[in-house]
Structures are given as structure tokens and as C-alpha cells.
Specification:
By secondary structure, this protein is mainly alpha-helical. The chain contains 10 helices and no strands. The chain has one domain. α2 packs across α3 and α3 runs antiparallel to α5. The longest helix has about 30 residues. The N and C termini lie far apart (about 55 Å). The relative contact order is 0.15. The model has no long low-confidence stretch (mean pLDDT about 85).
């Protein structure tokens, strides 16, 4: 049995699993893709891999998989209530809301770098943000803004927004036009291998610049 046959069989098995269990399949794919992207960015930037950082990414990766699946479904909602045009579905669906995901991704990584990649500290950070929101005072609104924005590498985030609104629009147009429903999330995750490595590299560079100030 040659490699092509093995690859075909593996892909067929994964396709069947993804169709039967789309959420779990997305979480598993994200686990692989985000860990690989993180490892690649570390090797490029630091010339070594910090296992603690990989554990942090691995712990958050299933959540990222759920988010990406939700992004793809946002395109289906656009198709249902606005237009079936693939370009509109991608532009108003996953690529628009993908910028919010990138924001979330960058914040998580900057807080992780500052807090020695502690998940408890990340949860405490978001808890403090929610407490500030619930108090509804001007000073707390300013604190909430600072607690998020000050952890965002703005230049690198702008790069991600530009790429999301250009290259990803082309990819998602193809994804909605030619890929079957059950495999769209998998296709997006597969395309995310290079994208996640680039996003992780931008995040690593940006958060180091913030924390060195």
C-alpha cells in the first residue's frame, strides 16, 4: 500500500468522522494545527521550543476549534437570511467575525506571556473584565478598555485584519462555492496550518514588544 492510498484512506476516515461528529472533529483538528503553529513560530523567533507555551496553546486549542466552527456557521446564517452569494457569505460571516477571534487569540497569548502561561491567570483576567463590565461606571469602563487594549499588539493585529479581509475572503469564497457542507470547517482548519503559524509569529513578536516596554 503506497502513501497516496494510505493518505486517501485516512482522509476518508476523517471525512466520515467529521460528518458524524463535526464539533469534536473541529476540536481535534484545531489541537493539531494550533500546537504546530505555535511550535513553528517559536522555532522561527526563538530558535527553540518552550514546552510550557505549547501546553498553554494545547489547552486553549479545543476552544479555538469551537470558535472556528462557529465562524463557518456564521456564513451559513448569512446565506440563510441575507444572500447565498459565496462572496457575501464569506465577507459578512467568518471573515468579518474572524477579526474578533484574532483579537481574542492575541489577548490570550499576551496575557499568557505576562503570567508565565498560567490558565488560572488568564481566567482571572477575563473575570476581572466581566466584573468591570457589571459595575457599569465610567472609571470601570476605562479600566475594561485598558485591560484589553493594552494587551493587544496593535500593529500585528492590523496585519491580521488586512490578511483576513483579503486573502481569507478569496479562500472562503472557494470554500463556500466548492467544498461540501460537512468538510468546510476542516478545509478552513487545513488552510489554517500556514495561517496559524503566521498568526502565532505575529502574536509572539507583538506581545514581546508590549511586555518589554
Amino acid at each position: 500500500m503506497d502513501i497516496r492510498t494510505i493518505s486517501s484512506d485516512v482522509f476518508e476516515l476523517y471525512s466520515q468522522f467529521q460528518n458524524a461528529h463535526p464539533l469534536i472533529g473541529s476540536m481535534i483538528a484545531a489541537e493539531v494545527i494550533f500546537v504546530v503553529g505555535d511550535a513553528a513560530s517559536q522555532l522561527i523567533f526563538d530558535k527553540k521550543i518552550d514546552i510550557k507555551k505549547l501546553h498553554y496553546t494545547a489547552a486553549l486549542a479545543p476552544l479555538y476549534g469551537i470558535c472556528i466552527k462557529g465562524l463557518l456557521e456564521s456564513g451559513d446564517l448569512i446565506g440563510r437570511y441575507v444572500s447565498e452569494n459565496p462572496a457575501l457569505k464569506s465577507a459578512l460571516g467568518p471573515n468579518l467575525w474572524g477579526n474578533a477571534f484574532n483579537f481574542f487569540f492575541f489577548i490570550n497569548n499576551t496575557v499568557g506571556e505576562k503570567e508565565d502561561y498560567s490558565l488560572k491567570s488568564l481566567l482571572r483576567h477575563y473575570k476581572d473584565v466581566l466584573i468591570n463590565i457589571s459595575l457599569r461606571s465610567k472609571s470601570c469602563t476605562e479600566q475594561r478598555r485598558d485591560s484589553l487594549i493594552n494587551f493587544l499588539p496593535k500593529k500585528e493585529y492590523f496585519y491580521s485584519v488586512a490578511a483576513t479581509l483579503t486573502a481569507w475572503n478569496v479562500f472562503q469564497y472557494i470554500n463556500y462555492s466548492y467544498v461540501q457542507d460537512g468538510m468546510r470547517t476542516s478545509a478552513a482548519l487545513a488552510a489554517s496550518v500556514l495561517w496559524t503559524g503566521l498568526l502565532s509569529l505575529w502574536s509572539l513578536q507583538g506581545r514581546r514588544a508590549i511586555l518589554c516596554q
